[in-house]
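Protein: ATP-binding protein
Species: Peribacillus psychrosaccharolyticus
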Amino acid sequence: MSIEFPIKYFEGNLVFSQDGSCWAYYQLAGYNYDFLADDEKDMIFTKIKAFFWQINLDTHLLVVPSFQSIHEKHERFKAKLFGSLKEASVKHTDDAAVQLERMLGKEGTEYRFYIGVKLLKPDGTKKKASILQDIKEAWKEFIGGVNEASGLDVPEILEDEINRYRKAERRVFNKVSTRLGAEPVTEEDIQWLVRRNWYRSIGKAPIIKNWSPAYSVKYTEYKEGGMTVRRPLYHDVLRLSEGLVDDSPKRSLVLKQMHEGEEVEGHVAFLTIANVPYELQFPGEEWMYVIQNLDFPVEISVRTETMDNRKALSAIRNKQKELKDQDRHARETGNDTGLNVLEGRQEAHELEAHLQKSRMPLIKTSIILAISAADEDELKRRCDTVKDMYQDMMFQVEQPYGDQWLAFNEFLPGAKRYIKDYVHFMEPATVAGSMFGATKQLGDGEGFFIGSTGILDQPVYIMPNRAAQGIRGTKTNALSAAFLGSLGGGKSFSANLITYLSVLSGGKALVIDPKGERGNWKDDLYDLGDQVNIISLSTKPEDKGRLDPFSIHHDIKEAETLALDILTFLTGVRLDDSERFPKLTQAVREVAEGEKPCLSKVVQTLLSNEDKTARQLGEHIRSFSELSFAPLLFGDGENDSAINLQTALNVLQIQNLELPAPDTPQEKYNLSEMLSVAMMLPISSFALKFIHSDRRIFKTVLLDEAWAVLNTSQGSHLATRLVRAGRAMNAGIYFVTQNANDLLDEKLKNNIGMKFAFRSTDPTEIENVLSLLNLKNTEYNASTLRELQNGQCLFQDITGRVGVVAINALFKDLFDAFDTRPPIEDLTQNGDMIPDGKLPIDGLKPIDIEKPKKEGVFI
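Structure follows.
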């Protein structure tokens, strides 16, 4: 069957068709859906319904899979790498690409959402000079149509007409942007939307870079009226359809392309929706969104025309007359009226009443699905799966014989409806209930790999500094992140992995390790070479005073503030304590203004004071300063050497801390626990100093056991300063904590971007986690959190989308380096020790392929 290629010309997001119409195309970013409560889903439903109620123009909805080449994605990321570790980062990126291709195949699938709107033909605004000019213009239009029909000439496009369509497009864009959050496509997007049709199940469609039909037009100036006419080189646009299409199977098509010198085949079948149920349940039967639950990609093309309320009522009444005549004819001939006629009459009456009451329009809709596969058998299996899925929702699905080529062309932008046998009249609510634009995709789509999501195991990539770039569609500009969950779920592992990959990509990091779990990194993270600095603070004389506020901060005011934070926490002195707080403040200020200030001198100043209350404060503080690791905090002003953070990855360890359990009330802390929590304050303040270094470099501060800081008023204030300064200084603060309640303060919550929530079983904690994610505490959301496996988390990206991600380090050396489980003595059947002394964690252990350490062979 011969069909004329429907596209005459395109420019910007405008597509000019051969039939004289013009379409404007837009892309939707996609929105989160699965974890929304019913009332939140209703809000989205209402916005989409309002769009189709008000647009009053023909539309073309497209849901198409974009086959993302893993190799090309990693190559693009390599071009952005920099820093002293660039060579190691390039090698890791290449290794990761090969490993992912082994696990997931060479291409991943991401769904994209497009909507085309047919623009009304604008009225001419240029006043004709005379009747003679009118005649000339009419004659030129007639001759142009004859030449076009005969193939002697190509059609012409007036420059003035393009400009008028641009004005019409801007009015449409306001509606599309407001209701659907869509953005105009680029010419490269349109080129891809055309070319991809000939590459289904063959490979990624090649794109001609820096090419536009506008580069290939001839301009002719007409003297009469001075009008500029564009004469597009039609064959330049037509070459986007390169490829052979064989329609001999009749119920499918065979596509053929030359790939690497060989002819490669792809098979595609088009299914049409022959009947749509009169009533669809919402939420629950989102008939476009459901395709993302399949383990293979499916495309959807939906074409709509709006029938206003008056015309809709007229059509319904005509249909009623037709059904009434059929009913009367059956009775007159002595036959029983068919059930379909009786049901049709009832539905027509109900619809008429509804139309009269609501004043809504009807949407004339046709729906086509495209399924592709590498061979006929797989194509048949996939078609049967799609048919069964839709038939379970009471949709009637057909695979039309002989119309496959027509259906193929309906997916092209700017094309018209070629198959008119499967048209349905729908309410705007039925179209809106499809949840066009809802997505399961997560992450930034670029950067480094952290895990996979969904039934298709789509790879998830992130760029940790992307939120601050002001990219449209992001819901936050915060660079900080939260890692939540109970013990053993994988929160420390994932925080370690992302921090490491950020450093490898050109950033710097400071890891606060109060439990001493990362002392192995110097040896295990061999790709970083000498860029790993393990700073282990101990009770040795050389470490005395290294966390003294006056050693950390050269600015006296900063040091005073931190000293007061520490001492008020240790003594329990409140700001409104008019007797003790002034004396403590006076002692700190007196020491700060003297020579070689330190906390020990503050204690001495209080003890030497004649005031009884001041001496009691001094005795109270001295009781802490005499503990074994207290010299770290209470320096003497003589040996307070600064901590050097010149390397890319710095780990600050204090193994002697005796942190209390997270749920222990502060009033029940013993002396060691009080001092241990107090030690986290200068450490956090030290992190604040770290992030004020080079603003051009992305910096990460990983704050393990963050609850120890966040559970105090001083620490909470310091954490807020950290995240706010981090956003300005190109730094992200990574909070690793078991309790989401620690982060629910609005000042802190609103400054956290990415969130990783691992398994939790406590109902109160689940409620807090969902609140932090801005999700409602529905049974679905709560059960998802409870049933997460080790290594799986509920991930919220910077666009606000939420989904389950399985974190994967890909390589065994990284898995072992970040594994924080204690060694377990276990024996093999022969009585030998397990080599690494640890048992595997489900979901975190990578594929076990041997990888010698230095050579970089893949596991």
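Remarks: Residues 387 and 397 are 6 Å apart (CA to CA).
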